[in-house]
Amino acid sequence: MGNTAASLEGRVACITGGTRSIGRGIAEALLGRGASVVVNGRDAEKGQRCLDEMGAGDRASFFAGDAAKQADVEALVDHTIERYGQLDICVLNSGGVAATAPVHLMTDEEWTLEVDWNLNHVFWGMRRALQHMIPRGSGRILVTSSVEGKLGKPGLPGYVATKHAVNGLVKAAAHEVGTLGITINAILPGLVETDIVQATGPASATAMGLDSYEALLDLFAQESALKRLNTAAEVGAVAAFLASDAARNMTGCLFPVDGGTMPY
Description:
The protein has 264 residues and is α/β, with parallel strands linked by helices. The protein has one domain (4-193, 231-257): Rossmann fold (3-Layer(aba) Sandwich), CATH 3.40.50. Helix content is 47%, strand content 14%. It is built from 8 helices and 7 strands; from the N terminus they run E-H-E-H-E-H-E-H-E-H-E-H-H-H-E. It has helices spanning 21-32, 44-54, 70-84, 108-136, 157-177, 195-207, 213-223, 232-242, and strands at 12-15, 36-41, 60-64, 89-92, 139-144, 182-189, 254-257. A 7-stranded parallel β-sheet has the order 3-2-1-4-5-6-7, with helices on both faces. Helix 1 links the parallel strand 1 (12-15) and strand 2. The longest helix is centred in the middle third of the chain and has 29 residues, at 108-136. It starts with 11 loop residues before the first strand and ends in a 7-residue tail after the last strand.
């Protein structure tokens, strides 16, 4: 492993939305550092395929559940502890653009889904994880936020608002448990062309006043200093570092992985 402070040998993690996209990148990074990982997703078939492809044997398992539902998020934490006997790293990664509409056209149902998926799931998972971590006096909680948690785009009010709120939750909770051996941080990725982005991108482009999905990708790329989109592996590398002892003095922080998109 080289640097022992960066090793995750003997650690156990759970990841919401861990079978694909950014979550998959984080799962692979944690496994690569020696952790055991429970990945969550809604589709058991996709979950098994993910485990087969990662090839981590008993160090990886799957838990089926919907991150927009409180019972499923809490059950993931409980299952991880039952499966591996402990929880050291809780990655609250699931989320995305559930609806694309300007504020005056967004329905109550669309707004509620955004809040449950992007914000409430983080609160539910963080609360359950802390109930286990506080008595143990150690733990790492990582939240996948977004550059839109500091910036904003038209047509995405639910996503932008919930990501801003997630960032505030991370800062507040980190101060609550800072003396208890627990760190809480958020990672703010720039756009990663995931399957979710591919599915919702055309509607997002329209809501943002762009003429094509390709124009949306180009806009996000050109807003960055590197002039390219981000990758799930790049996000995973930062997550693995923050989960390790090498980052024990970092908490309540918002870490951009965006190629230089955010001005601050």
